[in-house]
Prior knowledge:
The structure is a homodimer.
Chain A: H1 15-30, E1 37-38, H2 50-63, H3 79-90, E2 102-105, H4 108-114, E3 125-129, H5 133-141, E4 148-149, E5 152-153, E6 157-160, E7 178-182, H6 194-207, E8 210-214, E9 240-245, H7 247-250, E10 258-261, E11 267-269, E12 275-277, H8 278-289, H9 295-302, H10 307-333, E13 337-340, E14 346-350, H11 355-366, E15 368-369, E16 371-372, E17 383-387, H12 392-407
Parallel strand pairs in A: 1-15, 3-6, 3-7, 7-8, 8-9
Antiparallel strand pairs in A: 2-10, 4-5, 9-10, 11-12, 13-14, 14-17, 16-17
Amino acid sequence: xxxxxxxxxxxxxxxxxxxxxxxxxxxxxxxxxxxxxxxxxxxxxxxxxxxxxxxxxxxxxxxxxxxxxxxxxxxxxxxxxxxxxxxxxxxxxxxxxxxxxxxxxxxxxxxxxxxxxxxxxxxxxxxxxxxxxxxxxxxxxxxxxxxxxxxxxxxxxxxxxxxxxxxxxxxxxxxxxxxxxxxxxxxxxxxxxxxxxxxxxxxxxxxxxxxxxxxxxxxxxxxxxxxxxxxxxxxxxxxxxxxxxxxxxxxxxxxxxxxxxxxxxxxxxxxxxxxxxxxxxxxxxxxxxxxxxxxxxxxxxxxxxxxxxxxxxxxxxxxxxxxxxxxxxxxxxxxxxxxxxxxxxxxxxxxxxxxxxxxxxxxxxxxxxxxxxxxxxxxxxxxxxxxxxxxxxxxxxxxxxxxxxxxx
Amino acid sequence: xxxxxxxxxxxxxxxxxxxxxxxxxxxxxxxxxxxxxxxxxxxxxxxxxxxxxxxxxxxxxxxxxxxxxxxxxxxxxxxxxxxxxxxxxxxxxxxxxxxxxxxxxxxxxxxxxxxxxxxxxxxxxxxxxxxxxxxxxxxxxxxxxxxxxxxxxxxxxxxxxxxxxxxxxxxxxxxxxxxxxxxxxxxxxxxxxxxxxxxxxxxxxxxxxxxxxxxxxxxxxxxxxxxxxxxxxxxxxxxxxxxxxxxxxxxxxxxxxxxxxxxxxxxxxxxxxxxxxxxxxxxxxxxxxxxxxxxxxxxxxxxxxxxxxxxxxxxxxxxxxxxxxxxxxxxxxxxxxxxxxxxxxxxxxxxxxxxxxxxxxxxxxxxxxxxxxxxxxxxxxxxxxxxxxxxxxxxxxxxxxxxxxxxx
Lengths: 408, 408
């Protein structure tokens, strides 16, 4: 008899975005004359940079001609892309990452979801709260948790983020083997300094733990003192895997290209306590279950590293950062405490009331959609997330509506 | 302490293609003047159909304009593509599959590799031998086997394919929960009739088993009596998941688009013996660990179903089928017994000697690269696979060289 993986039955139904959609639909049905401005989901709205479009077209043209046609490529990605990534994103920052330590993929969501497979079933997992739900759900599916109660799964170690600690959690008080960190953070927009990140790297080294560092939003860092990669921290290559994406850097959410860095120095242990290469394990997983990213997409991603591509992607990120600064300024002027909005596209606001209550207020009085913080975990209760991914004029309009709504 | 998934240590090193590459390199180093013709790996060589190229370019152009730009799409694929698949590939064959039962992905390799996650850890797995290695390796990684001995993993049920049974194995003699089948078969090129497939569907229904039906090569079927989809068999929608790909149909091996069909009627069981929806489980898995296929790639795939696309992909497949027929004709004339090469791009040849010995003979005497059958499992010993994926002129030249080599 074919039986299911019963761990799936432990998953809490993902009500957050369904609930948001339901409330927005109810509102628009009731008020068809009112335009809703969406600052909820973290999806880009601006077109791909021209350099990427040109390279994308050239890649497609190559597929039209037998002389330049490409069939299966290397599962880990083409050298032309991996080499540029190593050079521009790592070596230029003093991080000694080589091309063969980079695994090109179709998304950071896939990679952050799949990576747990190469570790033991009884791995003790630590996740931040608030948290990107994929980190949690993929470990629930793999059987590393008990059931959920009050929004928290038994067996997981939750690292509380609060306004007091600036959403940089304290080290775990119980032993943790695999630690998910994300900076600039989704959903809070918080950033981490080198000294703060060093605390985590040192912890991992001392405790033979491993850090999964999600840096999907690193392109939003403008403060040169902040680390753009965890490998700027000494010794991180032994204890950290880093996830990156072209989604937010270059507007690739619908184009799909990302990469994961697994340094050859990175180790985990077998049951005899012997060191094992995490790079070899991931390489085997990647080669067995993945067949590479579309060739024209890799060409488009490569163009991010051209001179024009660098200028254009910087301008793209600057555009959203201008939105973020405006949101942060307006929200602060209204007397709210917030984090993010600097070096990040997200503004995380202490609403001083229930998350959903604030969500409803902004929707009904201002016609603005945000994301209730409670959807990201227990520590998100009382907060909302506003995203800077929209046109500047829409953000201006949204903020002026919020101002009016709250003045009522 | 971070520990590895020790099941990975059970994996036999994948020597097959490494070994092939090593031997080919040694040969070309020794004989730089001789041109090697590659009929080994199953990778297409002809350019994408013009209809796909045009649609691909239009998709890229849409990404260049804010008014038509696409960010995150539905994880399961765009309706425009899913609806065409349902209509053309299933409803037109009398198979009642709807658009929301189709999950668009970036490859059948990924899907056939990932699908086992939604089933229990103690699922009894049956695989054909010879076998596409991904079916086996992903179950080894998930801990459903013991270690390997003599090329076979403990705990797996191997279904022997032989020249006598035409590489359509007999039903398992021990209970099996999850059964991998692939027709037209990789690597043997064997096809299955409706009556033969019905035996498996009936077995699954009677034993509450589930069939994973890999139909990546269905476009090569020209015999109208053969099933193009397992859902042509009555009751299959309750007991079968089907995998399809644009890789071999339309030359998408480097472009990356495929799909998996999970009917809503398909059931598995929980530990209480209650029915559970496999569609819901896969939908959850897909939505949690995947973020959809690149939008321009989905547009290119959609064009396969246009009138021009249908003509062009048929011509593309016909081209390879002409190669296959030539290989089959020549090999048969040389006195070898073979299967495949009709309704399939692969010709599976009984070499009447060790697989690697025949491989070396063809490489050294004819400068032709094939794949030794032993690389696909114990039952592959004594066979070689020749692939029809190359230019017709090269295939002609390869066959004339093989003829000469064997006449020596």
